[in-house]
Amino acid sequence: MDILKTENLKSYYILEMGETKKEVKAVNDVTINIHEDEIYGIAGESGCGKSTFLKTICKLVEPPLRMIGGTIYYQIDGKYVEITEIKEEDFRKLRWKYISYIPQGSMNALNPIIRIRESFKDFFTAHQKIENEERDFEEPLKKHLSALGLPVRVLKSYPHQLSGGMRQRTTIALATILKPRIIVADEPTTALDVVAQRAVIQLLKDIQKLQKNTIILVTHDMAVHANITDRIGIMYAGMFVEEARTDDIFENPLHPYTKFLIASLPKMGDKTYKPSVPGVPPSLSNLPPGCPFHPRCPYVMDICKKEIPQLVELNTEHKSACFLNSKERVE
Amino acid sequence: MLFFKRYLLPRIVQFLVVVFVGITIVFIVPRLTPVDPVQQVINRITAQGAFLDPAAVDSMRKSLTELYGLEGSMLQQYFAFWGRLFRGDFGPSLFQFPIPVTQLIMTSLPWTAGLLISTTLISWIVGNLLGGLAGYFKDRRWAKVLDNISMVIRPIPYYIFALLLLILFAYLFPIFPSAGGYSVGRRIGFNWAFISDVLKHSFLPATSLVVLGIAANFMTMKLIVSNIVAEDYVMYAKAGGLKESKIAFKYVLKNGLLPQITGLALSLGQIFGGALITEIVFSYPGIGTLVYGAINSGDYNLIMGVTSLSVIGIAGATLIIDLLYPLFDPRIRHR
Asked: CATH second-level architecture of B111-290?
């Protein structure tokens, strides 16, 4: 069963500068389904709308970002609930218990002037009453930290006293303390060295195994995806252009953009030249007509310049939004 | 001990150096002005029509110079000045001779301190609180109204605003007295009649300072907060479903106040310098009026007294805030 699904989701940054109004189409008509108990990866280059997509599904939309259209459903106790219809105060109660968010660059996600324990307490008391300090808060907190392999002494520290990797892991521990059903992680490994990256990835894996929840993980590091995710969605210019099981994507990419992406990955022993995608990504405020990838696509056809290809299922659980693929099917 | 050596000592040395350099400049600058206090007094006497023969003028100049502590070379005067300073003596006032400068300052200081400490604190607290909340809830109606009001008030030059208040509430609608610290003829004492009289007199000067002070603090704080709400930890707290009030106070305001604390300490340190324009406009008997008169009459000793106090005040405030700051911001350490 799906835990979260979106239909034709659109969120734009609307920038008004005097007379001129600029629309940045950061999430443009996205329809995806995310299953229960899986790690779903989202990949794509910088500025393709990955973070905006996450913010939108977490209802963290603030001007100039605006949700223009579409629907977002959470599955709560077997029923699909449209979250834009939930009142802000009721949604506040869903946060952290149902969906939690690990922000991009979460090195600075902790209030710098309070101790970590205080941060944990703030997040905890926002959702649960503490009647007995020791039983209701200290106990479960220490249990949670040791389950994640974090030393209890971090609680006494201020954020600046921890290393970057430690801070990141603390943030993740904080995001998972109430065992949320969905964890949304926006580039949790960016700005960390590989050793710390590994620790963070392992932590996310462990949490998922332990709590059986869904992780939506955004990163442009394909190695991280290969290592941890069950399924991957590839984003390009605000749209999902391909979605498949992780091994499928790496072995048999269908969309030309994904092909370039996978071909660019270095392999052990392979010393051949890695070609990059020609051209530059389009401006989200001024998308080309038709398929947004067509100006860079070596297989471009006439239809690509006029119509936007839809994300269609080609093989089992393998979807692609490219006329090249769908045409082969049709004919 | 390590704390003393590594943290306290350098700051105290810095404090002493600032005070030393400041007071040295205070000593030199009045001596560079063309106003000669001895000549001032002689001019005053001759202007009253008295005839003095040149020999008498010469001997008078000599005795006045001696009296004022102006004899000898600059260097000798300088050392004599420091010597007196360590005994807490700024010498006699040259213009209101022979009243000691310290006595003049002590009479004026309570007026200025009372006015400035209360207005500085009120405008800091109210301005920052409103500015912080308006910055956090920037799309609310009340926040926009407050923003517009402060945008109108803030650019008004202080003296115009003060004069406007004076004309409106002391002349056109004579609700408040137009000048002084208390009614002429009232005896100074600790009783309600005197206190209410003082409050009534200080109401307009205080209002002028508080209104502009709130507007200034409001706008600075709103700007600081508009940066802080974009910080990751505020976003994270929102994603975590923390209550708005908690985010506003504990996550946004508390962090936003850090730079403002320094500002508060500096403005409290400036109290010894008086509020020059306020005191002149409202004829308020404080340090500002005192120093204004001193500058006009070339009263070296009084100028030096007030300015030295001001130097010590600001350097002292900086020192204190340096020592206290780690209490507010754990990232700053006593290293």
From this structure: Orthogonal Bundle (1.10)
With 90 as the cut, is the pLDDT of residue A191 above it? no
Within 233-252 of B, beta carbons closer than 8 Å to A belong to: 233, 235-243, 246, 250-251
Cβ-Cβ contacts under 8 Å, A65 against chain B: none
Q: Which of A103-112, A158-167, B61-70 has the highest mean pLDDT?
A: A158-167
Residue pairs between chains A and B whose CB atoms are closer than 8 Å: 77
Within 8 A of B248 by CB-CB distance, chain A residues are none
Residue type, A300: V
pLDDT at A330 over 60: no
Q: Are A166 and A149 in contact (CB under 8 A)?
A: no
Q: B331, A103: Cβ pair inside 8 Å?
A: no
The strand pair at A39-43 and A214-218 is best described as parallel
Instruction: Please name which of A22, A19, A17, A18 lies closest in space to residue A287, comparing C-alpha atoms.
Output: A22
Given CB atoms, is B260 within the 8 Å cutoff of chain A?
no
Domain boundaries, chain B: 111-290
Q: Does domain A2-287 have CATH number 3.40.50.300?
A: yes
Q: What is the pLDDT of residue B50?
A: 67
Chain B CA closest to residue A176? B240
Which of B139, B233, B238 lies at the smallest CB-CB distance from A111? Answer: B233
- Per DSSP, the three-state class of B257 is helix
Strand partners, A245: A231
Per-residue model confidence (pLDDT) at position A216: 93
Instruction: Please report residues of A whose CB lies closer than 8 A to that of B332.
Output: none
Q: Which DSSP symbol is given to B87?
A: T
Q: What is the pLDDT of residues B153-194, one digit of tens each?
A: 988 998 899 999 999 998 888 888 877 777 776 777 778 888
Global ipTM: 0.84
